[in-house]
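Section 4.2 – Deliverable D4.2 (structural model, holo form)

The reporting period included a commitment to supply a predicted holo structure for the target in complex with nicotinamide-adenine-dinucleotide. Inputs used:
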Amino acid sequence: MQGLLTGKTAIITGSGRGIGAAAAQLFAAHGAQVVVSDLDLEPAKAVAEAIHQAGGAAITVAGDVTDRDFAQRIVDLTLAQFGGIDIIVNNAGYTWDGMLHSMSDEQWAAMLDVHLTAPFRLIRMAATYLRMTAKQEQSEHGMAQARKIINITSTSGVYGNTGQANYAAAKAGVVGLTKTLAKEWGRFNIQTNAVCYGFIDTRLTADKDAGATIERDGTEIRLGVPDHLRSAFAMLHPMGRPGSVDEAAGPLLFLASALSNYVNGAVLEVSGGFAP
Ligand SMILES: NC(=O)c1ccc[n+]([C@@H]2O[C@H](COP(=O)([O-])OP(=O)(O)OC[C@H]3O[C@@H](n4cnc5c(N)ncnc54)[C@H](O)[C@@H]3O)[C@@H](O)[C@H]2O)c1
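Output (structure tokens):
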């Protein structure tokens, strides 16, 4: 099946790596023009280059989703380059784990900023374009084209997870944001849904000793999961393994395409059946 997103423009934050990168390439293969955005310019450029090599269309917008001017910048660049916005995937993020009794204010706020406030600001910034365009299409054609907001949440946000009070609270907030927007914007034919991942094989879930880090305001934060927890997880998991990034991207394509035009306010669990 090809061409599910022909002529559509998609912004995907955090698409230099992992799930976002797989989604960017899948969306482009289905005809979308993709705005590949990431904190790190080089991986984002590499994803955009792979899309170009495959004959697709993409631009790169580097930047931190928590910067105050990020939302304005990416919306303006997208409209200038592609003339519209049809799909927004709020995917950028990382983890900064710690037990609650020793969690700093900074650690708490950082997770709310990146996972909850940044998606809110991006959606709010796109609101003028999305609502005005829908109203115009409704008055001209009786109905607006379907447009899509997809927010990424986690089983940690739905079920909680030891050592992730900050991340879980932010991801639970994403569910509230999603369900509320679904009610506010359904009338504009904009479907807002969330995808709730369990354990997908990326830098975030790799062995912590592999040494991946992210630097935020001068603090180096170690990413990953301790190896003994990874092994325990595989034993408890109904499918006995984590999901791949391609398996994670498939449901995003469904929610970005016309196949999901009557799916609104849903939280789709993509966890291989694992409920912690
Ligand atoms: N991997 C999993 O098992 C899993 C499970 C549940 C939810 N998630 C969520 O999926 C999303 C993608 O994670 P992933 O597993 O692909 O991780 P990843 O580390 O492979 O990719 C995330 C990307 O987001 C970018 N990013 C991080 N902070 C950013 C910021 N402030 N501004 C801009 N870009 C930023 C990173 O540079 C990275 O390229 C995240 O929201 C994560 O919380 C992942």
